[in-house]
């Protein structure tokens, strides 16, 4: 599908080559200038979302064709954008006035939504694949938000935080990590094993029952009874 420069620009904002450095710089900034516990919470959420979406990709790319779930490769862009932008937005919004928090939430939703739509416009993923990616990333973000709220968080220093993240975006934007190709290579190997397992299972299946002699000769009694009846008639 032909992609416009704007669509490419938007989808690049959800690439792992951009989001992973942003997440790591966010963790480092929180660790140094705010709270080590918050930094670990953010790192935990992003790491678990990455691990879960990678496992889903491996699962469906390798053996998904045998289940035919209509799902081949969940969107990593949708997942990472939801968890990274979502968690950073949660940190920035903490302790702000309600209108400011609402504005930050709307910006995050708009950015994540545009990235998810760009994957559809580019024809890279189907709707169900984008929704699964969004579900994984959103679940990780909500877990972070719930844990963060229980800490009664204070405001972060927006000058330091925004400066660090802006510098990271300028340096990393446009960088593409070969994550998808690595996952597909691993999935191909797992898929070969899956094919062998499916073939072995097919061999081990019991053969269908063969018709018995009695069932094979089912029509015979009717002929016998008919001949017997005709014989009896002749005898009379």
Features:
236 residues; mainly alpha; 78% helix; 0% strand; disordered C terminus
Q: Could you explain the architecture of this structure?
A:
The chain has one domain (7-200). Helices cover 78% and strands 0% of the residues. The chain has helices at 5-12, 16-33, 36-67, 76-93, 98-121, 127-149, 158-172, 179-204, 213-216, 220-235. Helix 1 (5-12) packs across helix 5, helix 3 runs antiparallel to helix 4 and helix 3 crosses helix 8. The radius of gyration is 30 Å and the shape is globular. Mean pLDDT is 80; it is low at 196-205, 213-218 and 220-236.
| Count of all domains | 1
The first-to-last residue Cα distance is 88 Å
SS element count, helices:
10
Rg of Cα set: 30 Å
Helix content: over 70%
If you average the pLDDT, what whole number results?
Answer: 80
Give the low-confidence spans.
Answer: 196-205, 213-218, 220-236
Q: What structural category do the secondary elements indicate?
A: mainly alpha
Sketch the topology as an H/E string, one letter per element.
HHHHHHHHHH
Largest sheet: none
Write the layout of secondary structure elements.
Blueprint lengths: L4 H8 L3 H18 L2 H32 L8 H18 L4 H24 L5 H23 L8 H15 L6 H26 L8 H4 L3 H16 L1
Helix pairs in contact: 1-5, 2-3, 2-4, 2-7, 3-4, 3-6, 3-8, 4-5, 4-6, 5-6
